[in-house]
Amino acid sequence: MSTQEIRTIAVIGAGTMGHGIAQVAAQAGYEVWLHDVTDGLLERAHARVVDNLAQGIVRGKLTEEGRERALAALRTTANLEQAAASADLVIEAIVEELNMKRNLFKRLEALCPPHATLATNTSSLSIAEIAASVREPARVIGMHFFNPAHIMKLLEIVVAPQTGDAALQAAREVGARMKKEAIVVRDVPGFATSRLGICLGLEAMRMLEEGVASAADIDQALELGYNHPMGPLRLTDLVGLDIRLSVAEYLHSKLGERFRPPEILKRKVAEGKLGKKTGEGFYRWDE
């Protein structure tokens, strides 16, 4: 299937990543369906897109006409069948839980047109294991976007042994139309980006645990010494400590001791200190 035939993209999951992916797709000129399980979640996601577009105008990155075109192209629905029925490409962006993704892909295969490419935004889970839930695994590929999706340039395309050439071509061409810089990696635990990012983040947590320096100073070491736009501990707060713990546990189970989650991370998650979304993680966000 060529990307010229991709006119409609369905994004499944309207959370932190999903609403941003839907926005980027709408700005790229695709017709977009954004799906989640309740109207309330969709209303919040749509409001965030509206705010992002407004900020784009303020920064001079977007025109009024561009904003109106993007909003006109974006529709929301709590009905999965409606979202999938006309999709040429589906991008799944639900929680990082393998069985939930497998069950969703099984449903999507039945609901989508036979030509549709089925992509997952997973940051670490096996594409091959997700693809094993469908009858035509050649349709399944990883399209890993980065937060915030409307700003971050990278698209990590993850190819499983079963992934077909048509799915890879579709992912590449859609990424290019979205103005993303794509890398193509093999389906291994953590791919390239999560493996590197988690490794750096876990070491920063161990340094904090050992009293090497404060969280702010550890972050500044990477920001000012290595030109990272954000330090690993602040980034963990934005991503969510619970999500980082889940990914670290998965990589630990697959790749061994180097990815064992530090005690400080497990303790903070147990205490409900999950980062910005709860007001406290490695930093306080409610002050």
**CATH-defined architecture of the largest domain:** 3-Layer(aba) Sandwich
Give the spatial strand order of the biggest sheet: 3-2-1-4-5-6-7-8
Find the CATH superfamily of the largest domain.
NAD(P)-binding Rossmann-like Domain
- Low-confidence runs: none
CATH fold annotation of the largest domain: Rossmann fold
Tell me the number of strands: 8
For the termini, the CA-CA separation is 51 Å
- Overall domain count: 2
So what's the CATH class of the largest domain? Alpha Beta
- Kindly estimate the percentage of residues that lie in beta strands according to DSSP: 5-15%
Counting DSSP H or I runs of 4 or more residues, the number of helices is 12
Structural class: alpha/beta
Radius of gyration: 19 Å
| Mean pLDDT score | 95
The coarse silhouette is globular
Give the helices and strands, then pairings:
Layout: E1 8-12, H1 16-27, E2 31-35, H2 39-58, H3 64-73, E3 74-77, H4 80-85, E4 89-92, H5 98-111, E5 117-120, H6 127-131, E6 140-144, E7 154-159, H7 165-177, E8 181-186, H8 193-209, H9 215-225, H10 232-239, H11 241-255, H12 263-270
Parallel strand pairs: 1-2, 1-4, 2-3, 4-5, 5-6, 7-8
Antiparallel strand pairs: 6-7
Label this structure with key terms:
287 residues; alpha/beta; Rossmann fold; 2 domains; eight-stranded mixed sheet; globular
